[in-house]
Amino acid sequence: LRVHLSVDSPLQYHALLFVPTERPYDLFHPESARGPRLYAKRILIEEHAKELLPDWLRFVRGVVDSEDIQLNVSREMVQKTPIVRKIREGLVKRILKELTKEATAFAGEDGEDSSWADIWRAFGVCLKEGYYHESFAWGDKLRPLLHFNALSHDDADGLISLSQYKEAMPEGQDTIWFLTAESREAALASPHLEAVRAKGWDVLLLTDTVDEWLVQALNEFDGTAVKSISRGDLAIDEKEDADEGASLLGLGP
Questions:
Q1: At what angle do helices 82-107 and 116-142 cross, to 10 degrees?
Q2: Beta strand pairing status for 2-7 and 13-18?
Q3: Which of 6, 17, 217, 222 ranks highest by number of CB atoms within 10 Å?
């Protein structure tokens, strides 16, 4: 995936960015160099300008050239300038826009032509980090990008978006259910799945370490609650159903 951006007003800058085809070995190393090259009037200012992109987009590579950055200021001052903050906002918007195009194509009839599955498997963890840390600022842009493996899939390679999950919800289901586990195999062995299997509901299987943090910020999607099947909510529903059935049979209080 390549992103070409050319802006003339109110700032003048050009960017050529790309998403690698494979996950870099140092993606999760805190001390690794990250950020695109920063040029001012085609003169290299910084080899890795990490201020140009948030840490959760650290997998994006490329170059940025601006006519508005002065050459006679220190690197530290360049990092703090409002110009860099505005360029950063513009870059994030454009990157998320292009990622959304890939995710939308993946969900369509020509999904096989989309690179989204590979992008998500390599860098979805980073996008989840972004949602947890900046859901207030970028949540609306990031939610359509979130994809998960689910109980309905045949193996761990399957992916479904929150929108697709909601569209497939049968009548009577009013919650998006998920289960966190160390692996798909561990999730499938959970006794919590029996209740939803009986109801014919699907469950998102969240197996990344960051998912425990993600669900703290992801409480609802498009007006539908997002809940864990292992935290008592489903058990309450089952008890209510049982009490109602007992009452109908004349066995209740």
A1: 120
A2: antiparallel
A3: 17
